[in-house]
Amino acid sequence: DDDIFSSAFCENSEKLINVHLFALAAKYYSLPSLGVCTPLEDVLEALKGDSEGATGIKPDEFMNNKKSHEVQVMSELVDSIANYCGIKQVIDIGSGKGYLSSFLSMQYNLKVYGIDSSSSNTNGAHERNRKLKKHWRAYQSRGRENLKSQSLEKANDRPVESEIKCKMINEEHLNNANSLQNQGQAITQDLVPSCSFTEIAAPETSTETEGDLVSGTQSHETKLSEENLAILNVLPAGAVEDFSSSHSNCGELCEEEKVQRKMISLKTKAKQSSESNLYFPLTSCITAETELNDIITDLEDCMMVGLHTCGDLAANTLRIFTAKPQIKAVCSVGCCYHLLSEQFENQEECHDQVWGFPMCQYLKDKGWCCGRNARMSACLALERVAVGQMLPTESLFYRAVLQVIIEEIYGVTKSDRHVGKTFSKSSSFVDYVRQSLKKLELDDSKLTDGYIMDYYEKYKHRMNELEAFNMLKVVLAPCIEVLILLDRLCYLKEQENIAWSGLVKLFDPVKSPRCYAVIALKKQSCS
Predict the structure, then answer these.
(1) What is the pTM of this model?
(2) Is 373 exposed, middle or buried (0-12, 13-18, 19+ CB in 10 A)?
(3) Is 280 left (phi over 0), alpha (psi -120 to 50) or beta?
(4) In the structure, what pLDDT confidence band is assigned to residue 426 with cuts at 50, 70 and 90?
(5) 3-state class (DSSP) for residue 35
(6) Whose CA is closest to 328, among 499, 95, 488, 206?
(7) Sequence-separated (6 or more) residues with CB below 8 Å from residue 279
(8) Residue 272 in contact with residue 242, Cβ under 8 Å?
(9) pLDDT band at residue 288 under the 50/70/90 scheme
């Protein structure tokens, strides 16, 4: 308890005297130990009821492993929420190069608006989107040829088996349709004490669901080769539905089945022509006061998402969500905690400012403040360090000694300029210092190489101290992240129009350290 953990520090000097106890306390107050998160599997089960999730494509070919992992996991959740709420429009805040947006559009047929403040990111997203569509068309064309060839072979080899399969498919189609009618009611109510979806609109069976059913049954008709399966892994759902419905294995179809398939084929083609461009990158700076109608002219019922939204953008995403009736759900993964603005960090009164922290009234009433150093620590990755990905001690040492030089020689204690990734471009400590001084617009001619190296020699014996200090910061990082995430969750709990909100661990923290999503769904009555 708190009394036991407090003995990790000296009562008089307040210095740390028990590192082991300090580490235990940090673990005790981390999100996994507090038990406040809702498991991702439980959320997906509650959203989908008894239905089976769509087979996700593997985007490894179009992005690195980290981004592929993030996009694949988050897009499945976003699609499940969108289906549950009966919406087809998604707004991706801080969309960057459009990895998540384009994937949601092409794989799940969602209409996505990706908004980013950087025009270079938006232009890059446009170009990437164009290239992806070219890939998709190529895969689709190759897939049609392979499926056509294999379908003809199988039809010639096993005509009797095809007729039997056709009959089985018709029966299974009817059974699946009947079970789907009650699917909306089969929602898990008791994931955790606070997880209840009862006030949210249940999904209804639609013509699109019918299309999905037929597409699903057709997968039983053709046993695809390994090559075909690999192709299907990178096709959007609509493309698979289109060509698989055109090449059936059934030798003879009953008239009812023929009519059904013809109708679905027409609907699919009409839908694809009207939604040939489902992803729209836009450039705009998003604040808490942003009017989405000014940016998106055809704004309708939608959900808002953000994959690693930076600093205050994560907080503003939640504020916009609660304020705009059209936004029915939100799924936000924040990052860059060090860039959050804090209401109580400075003593200056700014009544009109909207702050990134704290958000909830509980912490506001207490005047809670983290401070930049604590927020910087929250960005560290404990799980990566735990598996051997150690901190860059040498670059941190360079940066620490540089700060001493700047303060003692130039009298500068604060600057709006940044050193950035100078260490990786430097050949030595002297080179690092000179490049950094130029970036900070300070005259490096004041210092000789020998004088610079004197500072290095003076402090190099303390490098172990620096490493130990940074390891303590890493251990404490999850506790500070907890405070920021719980503040956002509490803010949502304070709103009257929210049906359910929770924290969900989406990603493998070794692959993606900022792995927690803040998720919320509005009540049905709020429209």
Answers:
(1) 0.70
(2) exposed
(3) beta
(4) very high
(5) coil
(6) 499
(7) 98, 101, 102, 104, 105, 106, 112, 114, 129
(8) yes
(9) confident
